[in-house]
Write a structure and sequence with these properties.
heterodimer; A: 211 residues; alpha+beta; Sufe protein. Chain: A; GMP Synthetase, Chain A, domain 3; 3-stranded antiparallel β-sheet; 3-stranded mixed β-sheet; 7 helices; 23% strand; globular; B: alpha/beta; Aspartate Aminotransferase, domain 1; Aspartate Aminotransferase, domain 2; 2 domains; 7-stranded mixed β-sheet; 4-stranded antiparallel β-sheet
Chain lengths: 211, 388
């Protein structure tokens, strides 16, 4: 009988490593949402001198490939410096797991993004973002690529739901091509807020839906 | 690997064949294997035709119908296609181009309706309430002079909700509109007598009652306007061409005869025991569908904060086969349209598990699956960021 998941995936699924939260984590992030089907949270503890990830924990709401990738990514990142850990790719995680089914790629990419966001969160909190660039439409668009369109399982940008982005003196306006009473409108709005509001120069965010 | 105790709890997908059905079918493969002929042909053909006629008689009787009102098909999918497209073909240009279906129909009805939309028909998709019941006022209001057919399932394939098809049938009768019901999951288990219930077309299938796959049927009330939809010979009262699958038809009849009320009661007691135990022992679990107006063999429960594919894989490692409405499990990566239809969100769909019982399940299986499930749910919740 052929099974879609490798033995390594199943091992990490059965007994995931580094599960949980870290008290007073130095960096943390949550990627995904119940609406898109998967969520991953990543917490890191960083040595202030060496910038080495001394501890890392994850939690997952998701399918087997999401859980297994979360587990392997914590193994790969532990003991690495932040700069080294940033370079860990989805491909590397997938190879370490002995391969993942194609259809499950998006569930596993989330774990990699979770790690990157946790590092970013650490850097933002510790003033390590060197050049504070002003937020541009491109930066907003890039962040919207991380917001899922639950109807398609792909992001808002790729599914052409972003109708417009405007930036004026610290206020950002995003127009989404969905009726305001659409079943996923509140979930999408919530996710956009999560992604855009932390930008250092964003003071106000409005999310509008088309009629 | 862990010790496996193979327990199959996905009997609404397909059931294990009953050996007695196979025995009934065998002669029609090895002895009476000729094509069904008229009375004026060779004796092997007459014997074969008698087998087919007898099977038809049994199936029709099970619905309270005459044998001239029942045709064999290749299964539910084909039966529902014939019902919707056959009526559309017969009445589309004469009466109108409007059909009404519920939002939570199974794919044969839903996708036949969608296909008809591409061919100039209008379809109203009726809402259901949070237990899955069709809104009868909305049905009544939706019927126009153009409406040619209402197709509402007898019971739902996922959440098990049994519709009040008697009331639905009366509304259709009063408005002079044909009524089709997909009875794939209720046939032999939930009473449906065409002498008592005004229904014009009924889809049934053998695969849900421990019969063979590839055989189903369609009840067509005498006088119903329906057109032939596939071209070929004149078999099945010139409505469904193709060489008759006599062994399977005989098997379908045998499977129908083997179902007893006692067995249905047994299925129901397994269902109730499972629901009662899960709701009492596992926190944050919701039953989907109605507590008792549901299929006797079906339980569907959403577990909060965790995802169905993960639950299924863990249960499979312990030897239990169940199904989920989670997008991650489906081949299309789409969440269950039924759970969305009853107002559920993605989380509810993702964490929904369907248990469907059959002849070969025991009360021990029920206890075993609940015991294992309690552990699995706890384990997955311990690694979930939600619900804390």
């Amino acid at each position: 009988m052929s099974f879609p998941y490798s033995e390594t995936v199943m091992e990490h699924f059965r007994n995931p490593h580094n599960v949980g939260k870290i008290e007073n984590a130095d960096g943390k992030a949550m990627e995904g949402s119940p609406a898109c089907g998967d969520m991953v949270s990543v917490h890191i503890k960083v040595d202030p001198e060496t910038k080495i990830i001394s501890d890392i924990k994850f939690e997952s709401y998701g399918c087997a490939s999401n859980i297994a990738t979360g587990s392997i990514i914590t193994e790969l990142a532990k003991g690495k410096t932040l700069d080294e850990a940033k370079k860990i790719t989805w491909k590397e995680a997938s190879e370490a797991l002995g391969g993942l089914p194609k259809i499950k790629v998006h569930c596993s990419v989330l774990a990699v993004e979770g790690l990157l966001s946790a590092i970013e969160n650490y850097e933002e909190r510790h003033g390590l973002i060197k050049d504070r660039k002003p937020t541009t439409i491109e930066i907003v668009r890039k962040r919207l690529k991380k917001v899922m369109n639950p109807m398609a399982g792909l992001d808002l940008v790729r599914t052409n739901l972003v109708q417009g982005i405007e930036i004026k003196k610290g206020s950002v306006r995003v127009v989404i091509d969905l009726p305001p009473d659409h079943q996923f409108a509140p979930a999408i709005k919530e996710e956009i807020k999560e992604k855009i509001e932390p930008l250092w120069d964003v003071k106000e965010l409005t999310v509008e839906f088309t009629e | 690997m862990l010790k496996r105790r193979e327990v199959y709890l996905d009997n609404s997908a397909v059931t294990r064949l009953d050996e007695r059905v196979l025995e009934a079918m065998k002669p029609y493969y090895f002895e009476k294997y000729a094509v069904a002929t008229s009375d004026f042909a060779y004796s092997m053909g007459i014997e074969a035709r008698e087998g087919l006629d007898g099977a038809r008689e049994t199936l029709a009787r099970a619905l309270g119908a005459d044998s001239g009102e029942f045709i064999f098909t290749s299964g539910s999918t084909e039966s529902s296609n014939i019902a919707l497209k056959g009526v559309a073909l017969a009445l589309g240009n004469k009466k109108g181009k409007h059909l009404i279906v519920s939002k939570i129909e199974d794919f044969p009805v839903l996708n036949s309706a969608k296909d008809l939309e591409k061919h100039g028909f209008n379809v109203t998709y009726l809402d259901v309430d949070n237990e899955g019941f069709v809104n009868l006022d909305q049905l009544r209001e939706s019927i126009t002079n153009e409406t040619i057919l209402v197709s509402i399932q007898h019971a739902n394939q996922e959440i098990g909700t049994i519709q009040d098809i008697e009331k639905i049938g009366l509304i259709c009768r009063e408005k002079g509109v044909l009524f089709h019901t997909d009875a794939t999951h209720t046939f032999t288990k939930v009473p449906l007598d065409v002498k008592k219930i005004p229904v014009d077309l009924i889809t049934v299938s053998a695969h849900t009652i421990h019969g063979p796959r590839g055989i189903g049927g369609l009840y067509i009330r005498q006088g119903t306007k329906i057109a032939k939809w596939m071209d070929g010979g004149f078999q099945e009262f010139n409505l469904r061409p193709g060489l008759e699958n006599i062994p399977a038809a005989v098997g379908f009849a045998k499977a129908t005869e083997l179902v007893t009320d006692r067995e249905t009661e047994r299925l129901q007691s397994m269902r109730d025991h499972l629901i009662d135990r899960i709701l009492a022992e596992i926190p944050d679990a919701d039953l989907n569908g109605h507590r008792w107006k549901r299929l006797p063999q079906n339980a569907n429960i959403s577990f909060h904060f965790i995802e169905g594919e993960s639950i299924i894989l863990h249960l499979d490692m312990h030897g239990f086969a169940v199904s989920t409405g989670s997008a991650c499990f489906s081949r299309s990566l789409e969440g269950s349209h039924v759970i969305f239809g009853i107002g559920g969100d993605h989380e509810k769909a993702h964490g929904s598990i369907r248990f469907t019982f059959g002849r070969y399940n025991t009360m021990e299986d029920v206890d075993a699956v609940v015991d294992t499930l309690a552990e699995v749910v706890q384990k997955l919740r311990s690694i979930s960021p939600l619900g804390k």
